[in-house]
Task: inverse folding
């Protein structure tokens, strides 16, 4: 997983195809060659052992895909993180959870609302997930600190960002749970935040957005929740308040309008979307037909992202054969994977 | 229409059955007897002529169901007012209109929003309909006074209610249009307001609610609009603001969230609901089978309101026969008609 060029989707497909990480590591150079590229530089055993020692020293644990502790809802994501580093109360992973996200520069009233909502959701027995950012995220964690909260952070488990949240992060280590996908010591960079957001959305039965500007990160989390077949919820505001526009637009687009924790509880207890069932069906293997498929798939791909489903339909190849071809292109460094299960050919 | 005990639904059915008001007036006593009651006291020619003279003296006009000027959308209502008294610019009845309604004690911000929305809807070529009440209604009329506004009032065309709106009502006489269902001189009473609300909803392609408390008159107008198959729209607000709860609940129940006049224009230009087509189908006559139907219908009715459609289904009689039986019971003073096309037997 730490080898450059191997993302969560590739990781999962390699393990599904080769049964174990050891077998997959052995097969990667060959697969990459077939895809027409050079083999990725693989992480070494030594590097892995150094990270494991660091995690141990921090009092943190690994939670890995396939392990009993790994949250089943998160495992449903096609790009579920294969490895998470967790510090705090791992029992929180066993309970149903709801994400609360929103603007870093939210109004005081919205922060107060988020804190109260998080507190009340705790009363409903729900764990509150958020991203430990300023504003709404911090308010949500504070409101649910007694009842149970999970902070998913973009950097390493031991990195405090924003710096003023150090005390809050330490409190959640003690009384809640902090999750990080990146190795210890990683300073969060801009590209890490969408990865973090998919974990927030993926862990949760639903995501509530409280005050968000149009085109903000919170709306990305909402979109990821919708793509995962989870409930998207939003708190409305006056059209005269620009900070309410993102949420109002979400509601116009079909998000459930939320005024209270009861509204949230009602929404997430509705029958789950059919998306999950579809995704499970998708994971059932089919016979491979690699040689033919690789050429066809390569021809169908271009620089614009297209849904994998479309490639499968257009190629007239089996889903398994297309996935294998994409895996080979990916390992050859010739594929880009995008949000929403889209792929494109990387310009040479 | 002015005869006691004859409401808009009965009026319309009598005219459909007997072809003219004169023939209907002659038939009423017999029908009432068949229904098991006494004949209603009919309005006299003299009374009618006095009202007509008063309307004329006020510079107002009658607009009657079936006349070319009568707004077609309003005519679609099962309980469309057979007679309206109109003072002002009758051309406004020819243009597509949208209702803006809301709380009398609305916040200053909401009134400002309503005024701006009404102004912008005028810019979209839409006439703004409201109820000339305090608060949101007044703001909506003010915003659309230049571009076109229709005030539907609960009392007589010459009665100013609330009194402080006298100047506003005179302005709308001059530059917009005022409509009244009640005869001149009628002081509005509580029961008149829901009737007024059905005209507001019925005239309009859609109704926008701006700030409304739960269980307020504005929500009744919204319900009437929905029942008429019109677009229901609402302006959201913070859950922390109690005055936003009615609108937020409407949106939860499926109303379109509105932030601007563009949102309204988009909503009402969507294909109309199928309700209208259904209602038209309903009006096609069927063979009468009165004697059998009256007994069956009477047996099916009780003190709790039930939908007429259910009576038709349960009676196994034709729709026309059931309507005729209901008409007879109605004229006999033994039927109550309720919102949503429900009927009940009046306790003896």
Result:
């Amino acid at each position: 997983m730490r080898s450059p060029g191997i993302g969560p989707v590739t990781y999962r497909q390699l393990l599904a195809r080769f049964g174990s990480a050891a077998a997959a590591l052995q097969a990667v150079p060959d697969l990459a060659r077939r895809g027409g590229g050079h083999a990725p530089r693989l992480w070494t055993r030594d590097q892995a052992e150094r990270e494991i020692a660091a995690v141990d020293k921090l009092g943190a644990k690994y939670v890995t895909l396939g392990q009993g502790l790994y949250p089943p809802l998160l495992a449903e994501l096609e790009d579920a993180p294969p490895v998470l580093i967790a510090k705090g109360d791992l029992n929180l992973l066993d309970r149903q959870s709801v994400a609360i996200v929103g603007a870093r520069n939210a109004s005081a009233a919205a922060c107060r609302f988020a804190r109260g909502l998080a507190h009340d959701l705790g009363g409903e027995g729900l764990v509150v997930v958020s991203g430990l950012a300023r504003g709404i995220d911090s308010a949500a964690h504070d409101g649910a600190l007694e009842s149970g909260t999970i902070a998913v952070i973009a950097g390493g488990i031991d990195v405090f960002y924003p710096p003023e949240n150090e005390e809050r992060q330490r409190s959640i280590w003690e009384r809640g749970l902090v999750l990080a996908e990146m190795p210890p010591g990683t300073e969060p960079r801009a590209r890490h935040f969408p990865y973090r957001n998919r974990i927030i959305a993926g862990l949760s039965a639903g995501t509530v957005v409280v005050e968000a500007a149009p085109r903000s990160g919170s709306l990305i989390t909402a979109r990821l929740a919708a793509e995962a077949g989870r409930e998207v919820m939003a708190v409305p505001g006056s059209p005269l308040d620009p900070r309410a526009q993102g949420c109002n637009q979400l509601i116009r687009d079909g998000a459930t309008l939320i005024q209270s924790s009861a509204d949230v509880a009602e929404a997430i207890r509705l029958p789950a979307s059919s998306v999950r069932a579809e995704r499970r069906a998708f994971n059932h293997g089919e016979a491979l037909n690699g040689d033919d498929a690789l050429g066809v798939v390569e021809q169908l791909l271009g620089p614009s992202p297209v849904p994998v489903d479309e490639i499968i339909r257009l190629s007239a190849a089996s889903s398994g054969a297309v996935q294998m071809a994409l895996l080979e292109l990916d390992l050859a460094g010739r594929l880009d994977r995008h949000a929403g299960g889209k792929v494109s050919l990387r310009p040479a």
Remarks:
- Residues 270-289 of chain B have pLDDT under 50 and may be disordered.
- Residues 108-123 of chain B form the longest helix (16 residues).
